[in-house]
# Entry
Amino acid sequence: MNMVLKNKIFLAPMAGITDAPMRRIVYEEAGADIGFVSEMVAVNAISYKNAKTYRIADVRDEPYPVIVQLMGSDPVLFENAAKLVVDLGACGIDINMGCPVRKIISAGAGSVLMTDEKKASQIIEATVRATALPVSVKFRKGFDNENVNAVSFAKMCENSGASFITVHGRTKTQGYSGTADWDIIQAVKESVKIPVVGNGDVATPQDAQKMFNQTGVDAVMVGRAALGNPWVLKDMSLFLKHEPSAPVSIKKIYQTLLRHVQYLKDYYGAKIALGLSRKYVCWYCKKLFDAKKFREKYMKITDFDFALKEIESYFQTQISGEIK
Ligand SMILES: Cc1cc2nc3c(=O)[nH]c(=O)nc-3n(C[C@H](O)[C@H](O)[C@H](O)COP(=O)(O)O)c2cc1C
# Structure
């Protein structure tokens, strides 16, 4: 069956980052056009109802559709996990066959599955069997330069029942370095009938347009460019519709960072939120004046409420500088 993808732009799944607070911010700032995939969820942990993993998979409270991404190596556990995440509110299931992390690969999961198409197929078939939800697969160009098999892998996904696929144009060996190969994404698109999402190095609205034009993909997926910049996704969406976008004011950055940190507190509690907020402070303030000095100061803060006050006073000077 050929599925129509509703979203032209997806926020990429990023473990430790694209959690419920981040998705909420992106939804509020970039709008309902953006598609969401959760952080990866280990099928063994979810089958044993590990509390932390279970919570990552639980998207029932979110007022927008979320695809939950599963990671693992055992088809039976995928089948069990697929049934469970349906009850936890997933609108679709994505299977992680692209993760380059050593611990995950040595457990037979993530990108190493690209070297075993038979096993990968069994996992997809088991997941498809377990649910009526669309099942997608996210994978890479190949495992390494000697094993570039994205095209045959894509065909295998299609034949195994995947509703759509996402291709990151780097090999596992490349990790996140070098440039993403968009030619392989085009080759994949030309080889299957199911929709293809292109991923890798889409950082600006112009990149997004270029990815569509050059590869013919049905949607693009954006990861690192959205860190501290949820507005880039909105700008992409507007650009694709030939609509203008407005520059983001420092006040807007301030309000959004503050809200993001607050959402982190609501979700994780003050202590964990403070730790997590450090990376968001770096990302949101990256291009602002005296950011390095502020970052260094912020990293030493040990009290959540004090952190909020420090963000406020840093931005007060930024905003008055902007008005002058
Ligand atoms: C910190 C980090 C965590 C990631 N976690 C996941 C993950 O859980 N699942 C997944 O499929 N990809 C994961 N990725 C890969 C991204 O989804 C994406 O494929 C990659 O960043 C390339 O896209 P970009 O060039 O737009 O960043 C992660 C990437 C980063 C940087």
